[in-house]
Amino acid sequence: MTIPLVFNDLCLQTTAPDKSTAQQWMADFVRTLMAANDAKLVVFRTTSHFEEMLLAPNYPMQAWFNDGIVSRESRDYVLTYATRYPIINPPLADLPLDDEIVVRSQRFLCTFEAQDAVGLGYAFLLGGLATSLLTESCWDATSIMLEAMEEDPITGNIVTIPAAAKHAARFQHIAEHAPWIKEQLKNSVRDGRDLLQKTQQWYPNLIFCEKARKQLTAIRSGAVQLQRIVERLFELERFCSEWTSDGFDGARLHCHSGESEATLNNRDLRRHREIVCPDGETRLFELHLKCLPDVWRIHFWPDIASRRILVGYIGEHLPTVNDPT
């Protein structure tokens, strides 16, 4: 799992009174960046062009890069980091339009002390680590409490949710996050074959049909769908671990649906969803998780008796009456 660093744009609403203070801020920031890099946090997401950020009056980041007073080691480190690793602007620019995070961001608003907190909001949505220059005492913290409002995709109601963004503005903060970073990185996978080998450990309440197992094996390293599949399967696993009702309450699963009656009544279309299970039975896997890159789907069947879930299909959108191709 890649843990992104997400720059907190609010930290530069306060500019330094002079170049000397700005240089000190940047020295601390470079040390934080070095510690993050050592911890394998190598993707940097920002809401603005990094080099244009204003540090002090008439002293943008670009001027800092060219400032002979600043140590060459610091300047070279940031420049090397910027060329070696992705700096993504805007923060979701590399994600497909149907990605769950992109879709959710369109109905999500986050504030900090009554100010729009765009960067902090993205850090929360992405499960990343927000990072700031230490321009104010409020940023000297490993967690930033936010006010978040989100439109419910089913009812359309606006709900307020508590949110906290993990945060670092000192290199010591990175060290404090070390256990969390280690746990997140533990959930990384090289490819679908690697994920398949970890399914028993990670998803003890999910049962993978042979079709899904073969589809996982075929997913190559670097596939845009891979990490989202990991996360969405964890959602199914969490659902099972919290399943206490006698029936299946699908409303607890984000971004999922069943097939239309017209699609299921079409014999040719229906058979795409009829999948052989490990017990030899063929079942109808019409329920599916959506919001994966490239319109991929995860089709599943809830076993109410055991409160476990069978995963039958992981791949491209299956044909429907409205989209038969």
Task: Give a topology summary.
Elements: E1 4-7, H1 19-38, E2 43-45, E3 54-56, E4 59-60, H2 61-65, H3 72-84, E5 87-88, H4 100-105, E6 108-112, E7 115-116, H5 118-126, E8 129-131, E9 143-151, E10 158-168, H6 171-176, H7 178-186, H8 192-202, E11 206-208, H9 210-217, H10 226-241, E12 256-257, H11 261-265, H12 267-271, E13 274-276, E14 282-284, E15 287-289, E16 296-303, E17 308-316
Parallel strand pairs: 1-2, 1-8, 2-5, 8-10, 11-17
Antiparallel strand pairs: 3-4, 6-7, 6-9, 9-10, 12-15, 13-14, 15-16, 16-17
Helix pairs in contact: 8-9
Notable traits:
325 residues, alpha/beta, 2 domains, 12 helices
The assembly state of the depicted protein chains is: single chain
Q: What is the share of helical residues?
A: 25-40%
Radius of gyration: 23 Å
User: Any low-confidence stretches, pLDDT <50, length ≥5?
Assistant: none
Number of domains: 2
Strand adjacency order, main sheet: 5-2-1-8-10-9-6-7
- Mean pLDDT over all positions: 90
Our measurement of the CA-to-CA distance between the termini, rounded to an integer number of angstroms, reads 33 Å
- Structure annotation, total helices: 12
Task: Give the helices and strands as they follow along the chain.
Answer: EHEEEHHEHEEHEEEHHHEHHEHHEEEEE
Estimate what percentage of residues fall within beta strands: 15-25%
Major beta sheet summary: 8 strands, mixed
Number of extended strands: 17
Coarse structural class: alpha/beta
Shape: elongated
Explain briefly what this protein structure is.
The chain is an alpha/beta fold.
